[in-house]
Amino acid sequence: MFIRSKYLRLAAFVALSLSVITAVHGAADNLPVYTDDTLSSGWQNWSWSTDINLAATDLHAGSSGTSLSVNSSAWAALSLKADSPFTDYAGLRFDIAGAEPGIQIYFQGGTDDASTPQIPLSVINKDVTADKFTTLLIDFKSLPGTGSVLPDGPWDRINFQALGDGAAYHLDNIVLLSEIVVTPEILSAEPITNDIVAVSTKGAVNLTDITVSLSGKTITVTNRTTYTPVDSPAKSITYLSLASPFKAGNLVIKSGNSSFTHVLPAAQTGSITTSTTPISPLIYGVNFPTSANYIKDLGVTVSRWGGNAVTAYNPFGDFTNAGNDWYFENRASENGKADDWIGWVNGAGSASVLTVPALDWVAKDTTSYSYPKTIYPDQQKFDPYNTDAGNGMLTNGSYVSPVADPTRAYTPWNTTAAKTWLSGLKNKPKFVNIDNEIEIASSTHQDMHPIDIGYDEELKRIVDFATVAKQAIPSVLVAAPSSCSWWFYWTSRIGWSDTTAHNNTDFLPWFLAQMKLQEQKAKKRILDYLDIHYYFQPDTSANDDAAKALRLRMTRSLWDPTYVDESWAGSDPQNHQPNGTIIQLIPRMKSLIAQNYPGTKLSIGEWSSQNDNDLTGGLVTADVLGLFGRYGVDYATYWATPNEQGPVGLAYWLYRGYGTYFGNSLSQVRLSTPLPNTQGVFAAAEKGKTSIVIVNKNPSTPISFSLTGVPAGKYFIRHFGGAAGAAKWQTTINLKAANYIVVPPYTALFLKQN
Ligand SMILES: *[C@@H]1O[C@H](CO)[C@@H](O)[C@H](O)[C@H]1NC(C)=O
Ligand SMILES: *[C@@H]1O[C@H](CO)[C@@H](O)[C@H](O)[C@H]1NC(C)=O
Ligand SMILES: *[C@@H]1O[C@H](CO)[C@@H](O)[C@H](O)[C@H]1NC(C)=O
Ligand SMILES: *[C@@H]1O[C@H](CO)[C@@H](O)[C@H](O)[C@H]1NC(C)=O
Ligand SMILES: *[C@@H]1O[C@H](CO)[C@@H](O)[C@H](O)[C@H]1NC(C)=O
Ligand SMILES: *[C@@H]1O[C@H](CO)[C@@H](O)[C@H](O)[C@H]1NC(C)=O
Ligand SMILES: *[C@@H]1O[C@H](CO)[C@@H](O)[C@H](O)[C@H]1NC(C)=O
Ligand SMILES: *[C@@H]1O[C@H](CO)[C@@H](O)[C@H](O)[C@H]1NC(C)=O
Ligand SMILES: *[C@@H]1O[C@H](CO)[C@@H](O)[C@H](O)[C@H]1NC(C)=O
């Protein structure tokens, strides 16, 4: 790949050949980017909205007595551009100091400004401090967090970009490395299934002398197979088959001077019983998949065109407006034309969900915005990239007045326009959402809908737009109202007076009852799916050990009738629901449907693990996908687009990757000691073949099960997580017995009978 693209560049652009040669030549030595008090020759400052001091004297790492001090506002960046691509280098090293600065690093280049995935500083190192420099390394063959390879591309720009809170920090000794010497190392050695030790390594490790012993007795290694995952080739895994199976005891694995010890616990007993209850294939969805290959690799069964910006999507020009996510500015649709998007998504084998705008306005162009400084001079914040565009708020946090003129950024929209658009689509969506979280439009889109939406307005908009959607596309399934969160399932933004005025009935049950009446009036169903967005309410942003454990147990709010939510929702019930502190989301919604509009299906159009970059986010996702199947969600799409190689992407791969699926009919799992805080155990069947997913949420303790109903024989195995990080592994094993199946710490395991 790399050779070929270099050859093509040389052949096509003779004028560029010099710089290509320079780059190749340069790779023989390290290439300094910044040292002492200056950028190296050939490097330019392409930063934006960032104060830079190249010769700060308050802190330094080298001998020069100076460093590079950086202050960036939200999403601004220190951006350093080279004269030619640095693709030939092995990695980037730099010294950094700052109070845990919220930044991410990525590379850019080429005429279309392509860029690599962002690498948050927190996944490279969590211990960067303000008072001294820490040296960090980005290995282009093993990117921090995912272990994946830097994608091919003409990268010639290094961006240190601040996240939403801005960032102030110091850098020193920024250098591209010609070579990274990998020290051979055994990263982990973990027991998995009934007689396999999975050893992950980097570099050329010699495992010939490896020994395994259980409670002091040596166990012979009968076979070893080494496997190098395509997505993270810097690490390898060697599966050691043992002559006798695991049982409770002290497992010690030794090679050279490395030693790994695990206390294998007594097996928890349980049974697996097949049933004919189907698992909906449509629970494995995401919003805005990146490509057809992404859909195929992860097995994405449903894809949603959604989010705040599509409320103002104008299909007759492909414009959107960012709303209060970004200064109420219009822009070109980031996902192109909806019709084309449906076409390629469907073509890749994924069902599509299209959001139909249902307010009175859509974006009129790619450039207008609602709160110009020239009209509203005293605003709280202005876009750092467009200092005339404000956020519509006064410095004291109140909205500016008078309210914005909607014609400044928008053009009118109504059901006639929606019908024209939907009727003319060449590619038909399977589902439509009637807009997105419009119950909070007076905040997200206050420039065009400053009045709070109440029960009646929301119902009318959904009925009107759902009716024309079904006229335009008779087969389409309507999923609404796509309420943003727990609070708004029960009331409107007007507040409890609105609830009181509606027979004192919480919003969703009222909405369902009204949609049932609507069916009687229209003589046909116009709501097919009760669609909600579900964001776990506990705050796990600290991402320390306690927050990770909370993140991993909060999945109980999806189903558990005894789990009091560990957030405000669990201490301050703001609804008329029985047991209001216990969310029990899926059974609760199913019972509301049964009471108010039987036959309606349930979809979760947005949900999130709360951390796309941490391994625990991947384990949460594996647990949730199992729970969606078990409790009968009909479709679901993750918000937003998980990185294919990141922990959340791996959870999709685990269940669905590359055409090997978790079964489609649910098997009952009964455990003698269910421990939902620390483990998830799921089973299914497909054409008589058993599949199992076990999620071990313990950070350092293996778990083990003795399961009846799991036949011995050959199984396809996949797993991710463990002490070596999130990398994915898969192979085929011989499961000799199901009376002692081990899952290592922080690991999600998938087994499917061959
Ligand atoms: C780098 O560029 C930014 C953005 O244009 C500018 O604000 C800054 O002053 C420049 N810094 C230096 C040291 O040239
Ligand atoms: C960044 O901000 C800090 C404190 O706000 C200030 O001391 C420092 O001089 C600033 N650095 C630059 C390069 O503007
Ligand atoms: C691996 O180590 C063994 C001894 O433990 C040695 O005999 C063998 O030559 C080594 N293999 C390699 C490739 O270094
Ligand atoms: C060792 O495992 C590999 C891969 O699973 C298999 O092809 C081979 O036959 C096994 N060898 C022995 C001796 O069992
Ligand atoms: C372990 O062994 C390797 C090579 O056998 C050696 O380079 C390394 O220093 C040793 N590490 C420790 C901690 O003894
Ligand atoms: C903010 O200032 C405006 C204009 O002075 C005023 O009308 C509004 O009440 C103030 N809001 C708050 C929260 O004080
Ligand atoms: C929608 O707007 C168009 C253009 O103003 C108008 O002709 C049409 O009657 C409107 N449709 C509805 C249902 O109000
Ligand atoms: C009002 O609510 C009560 C109990 O929740 C219910 O029995 C009654 O039918 C409702 N009335 C209307 C008009 O919806
Ligand atoms: C409320 O929770 C208790 C305890 O879990 C349970 O026994 C009861 O059935 C629940 N009530 C309702 C209406 O869900």
CATH topology of the largest domain: TIM Barrel
* Biggest pleated-sheet summary: 12 strands, antiparallel
The CATH architecture of the largest domain is Alpha-Beta Barrel
| Count of individual beta strands | 43
Helix segment count? Answer: 15
- Which ligands, by name, code or SMILES, are bound? 2-acetamido-2-deoxy-beta-D-glucopyranose
Which stretches are low in confidence, meaning pLDDT under 50 for 5 or more residues running? 1-26
Domain Glycoside hydrolase family 44 catalytic: 319-537
Keywords: Hydrolase, Signal
Protein name: Glycoside hydrolase family 44-domain-containing protein
Pfam families: Glyco_hydro_44
Q: What order do the helices and strands come in, and which of them pair?
A:
Blueprint: H1 2-12, H2 17-26, E1 31-35, E2 38-39, E3 43-45, E4 48-56, E5 67-82, E6 91-97, E7 103-109, E8 114-115, E9 119-120, H3 121-124, E10 134-139, E11 155-162, E12 167-177, E13 185-192, E14 196-202, E15 211-214, E16 217-219, E17 221-227, E18 235-242, E19 249-255, E20 258-264, E21 268-278, E22 285-287, H4 292-298, E23 302-305, E24 319-321, E25 330-332, H5 338-347, E26 351-356, E27 361-363, E28 382-383, E29 386-390, E30 410-412, H6 415-424, E31 431-434, H7 441-444, H8 455-472, E32 477-483, H9 486-490, H10 496-501, H11 507-522, E33 529-535, H12 545-553, H13 585-596, E34 601-608, H14 615-631, E35 635-638, H15 647-656, E36 665-671, E37 679-686, E38 689-696, E39 703-708, E40 713-721, E41 728-735, E42 741-743, E43 747-753
Parallel strand pairs: 21-39, 22-23, 22-35, 23-26, 26-31, 31-32, 32-33, 33-34, 34-35
Antiparallel strand pairs: 1-2, 1-12, 3-5, 4-5, 5-11, 5-12, 6-10, 6-12, 7-8, 7-9, 7-11, 13-14, 14-18, 15-16, 15-19, 17-18, 19-20, 21-36, 24-25, 27-30, 28-29, 36-37, 37-38, 38-43, 39-42, 40-41, 40-43
Bound molecules: 2-acetamido-2-deoxy-beta-D-glucopyranose (9 copies).
